[in-house]
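Re: beginner question about structure tokens

> Can someone show what the tokenized structure looks like for a real chain? I only ever see the sequence side.

Sure, here's an example I had lying around. Input first:
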Amino acid sequence: MGIGYELARLFAEDGYNLIIVARTREDLEKAATEFSQYGIDVVCIAKDFFQPQAAFELYDEVKSKGLTVDVLVNDAGQGQYGLFIEADINRLLDIIQLNISSLTVLTHLFLKDMVARNEGKILQLASIASELPGPWQAVYHATKAYVLSFTEALINELKDSAVSMTALQPGATNTDFFNKADMQESKILDTKLSDPAKVAKDGYQALMKGDDKIVSGFKNKAMVSMSNVMPDTMVAEQMNQMQKPKEEDKK
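And the corresponding structure tokens:
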């Protein structure tokens, strides 16, 4: 299961009613059956955030149902593996739409309501990729840099309100991300991947405490700390060595 599923389970365990969103109704209904066992209400809304109007439509549907969102979790995100010049530009534009545009729309619309009520929390799924240039995943890393910078700016804008925002920064995690990104040949899969349940717990606890951001995992904390003192060119080459195809070492 992914980080979003594990986060939803933590909210359910704590008695939060859920609005869960995914592209397919079948996946949503399966998850809803599991979460309902905690005695909560689960609303399923199927939306494809690759579509520019989907985030607006989701907000309108939530409002039309008379629902109030106390906590927004922006978890949806994908990448695409490969050299930038060899990638399908339309696929990359879809990733920008999903990782940046839809996240921005959802944040804008739901945050306005939270500020008006002077209460609410938002968890943004960033990544340690947000602080590391990423050869072989240049666009994905760039989108996560946007998420982190965007979140840090809004944290400052919200400092005099009771609304809080938290950026969760996991490293490579054992989810379906790598299949969707066509990353089966990347060397990074030979490293120890983080447990999505552990990542979700770190993010959930940070969100509830009102922390600005949390890097999940000691190894990832160390990597980010090192990147802050190393030249960007060296960090980029380090990421190149971690993410390049396995067969590159055999040439």
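Each token stands for a local structural state, so reading them left to right follows the chain. The chain has a mean pLDDT of 93.
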